[in-house]
Fold:
Amino acid sequence: MPAASSSPIPAGLCQLAGSGPARPDELPGLLDRLRRLPDPRRRRGRRLPLSYVLALAACSVLAEAKSLTAIAEWAADAPGQLLLRCGAALRDPDQPYRAPSKATVRRVLQRVDGDALDAAISGWLTARADASRAADEDKHTPSGPVRAAVAVDGKSLRGAIRADGRRVHLLSALRDDGLVLAQREVDAKSNEITAFRPLLEPLDLTGAVVTFDALLTQTDHAKFRPCRCAPCAAGGRSAVPGRRAGTAGAAW
Structure:
């Protein structure tokens, strides 16, 4: 069942909420990542590039848009220079840069690959945060080695309902500074366990401590070594017989 135009925005774009406005020099990096996403639309009838629609949606969320309608209205009011920076093309001399319609925004955001969009946004936010962290470290050198902490946890999205009436559930990997490194939608017929490895496999977790709750305390997860990270820690009541809660899972 198609969502209404006032429905909540995709989870990938939700990561941008509260992250602060982007500087003009940061937009090319975002555009480059969005251009790599597969376009779910048919070739015939495409008038606006996928990356352009997604870039405007991302900028509108950074400006606190919280629904598809708000995204479309923000894009319609955006100045020509911003449209140009987001990838607008010159088509009509009387109206140099065209913003996507509400229907186009709705169709694109409902059909785009959610996991691919999550990965693109997460990658851009991570690169942005790492650049800021590196600049801070240049000013204030840490007294000793700093080990990153990554927490894997699941959550159900408020207001996001599938056609069968079930709520959308995500599994996320969050860094200690609150940054979402990656997130995946958990299949309605499955649970967080099957999403654990696909979530962490693309990440560089070298030297990181990974924590997760009792549901994910599985033998296979303890043996899983994504990029040879540091020991994992399982909190709460263990889901594996004979394993004590709160102990390290394995020497990753």
